[in-house]
Amino acid sequence: MNHEIRRLELFKDLLYLPGDMTEVVPPDFTGERMTRFETRVDRRNLEPQLENYLCNGIFCGQGIPSNVDGSVEIIIPEGISRQQLQPIPAGTYAFVQCEYPPHENKPQILRENQLKAAEALWLECLWEEWETADSFVYLREIPHGNTTVFQLFRRIRS
Predict the structure, then answer these.
(1) Given this model, what pLDDT does residue 99 score?
(2) What pLDDT does 138 receive?
(3) How far is CA 36 from the centre of its chain?
(4) What is the reported pLDDT for 121?
(5) pLDDT at residue number 97
(6) What is the chain's percent helix, strand, coil content, to nearest 5?
(7) In 13-156, which ranges are E strands?
(8) How many CB atoms within 10 Å of residue 75?
(9) What is the distance of C-alpha 13 from the center of its chain?
């Protein structure tokens, strides 16, 4: 699989209702999901294992549509503040987007696609000499027709 890696500037946070608050998501909402991973791969790893690219995944929740100014388009239920929402923070990222194979629900194949994309993302960071800002990789999954698109974000210093 060929991965086209890009440098991406997020001008606003992408906001997610935390996983334990999914009961407040409207029942007909089938939007995006976000998981935050740690990576054990850095410049000291000369031959990293594929599974080290995405470790300790934490489901961060369902996506919340937002405006360019960062205001939330849905009503946040009573007792939940904007500070409780999980973000992919605004900033500069190495970015890749891929599709899961159509009609493929085998977890090991989906995971392998994510890991190979994460590896390609890291190798591009090395090639372009982009310095990573932290050890997080964000996985954003977005339904798209009969398949799901996934995106990986790794923050880089601008």
Answers:
(1) 86
(2) 95
(3) 6
(4) 95
(5) 94
(6) 20, 35, 40
(7) 14-17, 33-38, 55-64, 86-88, 91-99, 136-144, 147-155
(8) 8
(9) 12
With b for 16 or more beta-carbon neighbours within 10 A and e for fewer, the 44-65 pattern comes to eeeeeeeebbbeeeebbbbbbe
**What burial class does residue 103 get, using C-beta atoms within 10 Å of its C-beta: 0-12 exposed, 13-18 middle, 19+ buried?**
exposed
Closest listed residue to residue 141, CA positions, set 106, 120, 110: 110
Question: Residue 18 carries which DSSP code?
Answer: -
* Two tokens, residue 71: 């205001």
The one-letter amino acid at 6: R
Residue 137's pLDDT is 97
For the chain (158 residues), the mean pLDDT of every run of 10, in chain order, is 88 78 59 90 87 93 66 64 83 93 74 93 94 95 84 94
- Look-up: residue for tokens 């977890």? 107
3-state DSSP call for residue 100? coil
Phi and psi based region of residue 56 (left: phi greater than 0; alpha: psi -120 to 50; beta: remaining):
left
> Rounded CA gap, 81 and 51, in Å?
35
